[in-house]
Amino acid sequence: MNGAAIIDLGTNTFNLLIVKQYGEEYRIVFKTKIPAKLGAGGFAEKIITPEAFERGIAAIRAHQMTIREHRVENIYAFATSAMRDAQNGAEFVQEAENQTGIEINIISGDREADLIYKGVSRALEIGDEPELIMDIGGGSTEFVIANNKQVLWKHSFDLGVSRIFEYLKPADPLTESDIKRFEVYLNEKMSILFEAVDKYAISGLIGSSGSFESLAEMILENAGSENGLRGKTEYSFSLKELKELHGKLIKSNANERAQMKGLVAYRIETIPLASTFINYTIKKFSLSKIRLSTYSLREGVISELGTD
After folding, report:
1. How many whole angstroms separate alpha carbon 177 and alpha carbon 157?
2. Top CATH class, 110-297
3. What whole-number distance in Å separates Cα of residue 236 and Cα of residue 252?
4. Does the structure show a pLDDT above 70 at 15?
5. Tens digits of per-residue pLDDT, 56-88?
6. Under CATH, what is the fold of the domain 3-107?
């Protein structure tokens, strides 16, 4: 029985997935996240700040210890938006390898979108008709239009919620002016997505992990669910649920959000912006079918692992 460790070095979180091979199938045996906040404070100058650099290396070392505990030798590490943009991204990659021996592959936005599609495809059944996949990260947001056979269109936008938070510097709670500025900004930046949606009649929205997962956990907690998303790879939202939660989030301050069940601490600051982004997308494209895939990039890598 062989195994592999997959590390997704995102802008906000460093995600670890450990899989073991049973026959020709890989099964997930462990997963965890560390909020490294690699992009924090460095978006404008396109650098990884000294503090973020230190947090990132510490997170990789922590993941390395976990990997050793699971006795897995094959490690696949992928870095995304923050590392792509940072002038000292290559320096970080080299230092991480010097300290841990782990080689990090900085991937393009297109490659990221492909892996997200493969991960989502493992989590749920994409229909015959095109659906819009949305993966909100800290540094970038990937949109993919796909059906169950292929990717029809994809693009990675520099519209991650941490990047936008540093750019817009919104009030807490969000003001109507903040929301308006955000929506105008999205209108300016996403014209190629609008053209793609006009070309492919999308039948629904699939939110990939991240902020979508937090929203689902909050809804389930509020409904009194004991297990939440545990053991689930998908969840179907209702527009009513999302609208009610969105209204609550944009009116709340950080202290109030800290008390909300189902919301992890590292999303307290940015979840109102993420919810606004999702609400904007739903309204813009008149969507009524909205699903969550708990799988994303790191699960997509599983599809590319060969069998012995």
Report:
1. 23
2. alpha beta
3. 25
4. yes
5. 999 999 999 999 999 999 999 999 999 999 999
6. Nucleotidyltransferase; domain 5 (3.30.420)
